[in-house]
Design brief:
Distance between the termini: 40 Å
Strand content: over 45%
Radius of gyration: 13 Å
Shape: globular
């Protein structure tokens, strides 16, 4: 089992940058594939990015590809999401999630049912 806590959210101007972190408890963190999702006001939660157990195989939603970077440091039990040139439409609550399964495509990694553990979320507001 793993407990996830997101941090780093806040107010950022469009075109700026912001870094989110997801700290995980548990000694088996490296056995989990990880993902970021987000939920904008009035919208359903959507996939943002995912990364494999050892930091490989990053996948991104088309809406953030080229602007966001997902990474992880297994020695620190932490995953990151670097948000570059955010847009007002990136405003959302961002959630990290952990999966004991492996996914091999963006569509597979985007399935919420793949992830057994979720954090409480951190709010990101991008001002125009």
């Amino acid at each position: 089992q793993v407990h996830l806590v997101e941090s780093g959210g806040g107010l950022v101007p469009a075109g700026g940058s912001l870094s989110l972190s997801c700290a995980a408890s548990g000694r088996t963190y490296s056995s989990y594939a990880m993902g970021w999702f987000r939920q904008a006001p009035g919208k359903e939660r959507e996939f943002v990015a995912a990364i494999g157990r050892r930091g490989g195989s990053p996948y991104y939603a088309d809406s953030v590809k080229g602007r966001f970077t997902i990474s992880r440091d297994n020695a620190k039990n932490t995953m990151y999401l670097e948000m570059s040139t955010p847009r007002p439409e990136d405003t959302a609550v961002y959630y990290c999630a952990a999966s004991g399964d492996t996914c091999y495509s963006p569509s597979a990694c985007a399935r919420e049912s793949l992830y057994a553990y979720w954090g409480q979320g951190t709010k990101v507001t991008v001002s125009s």
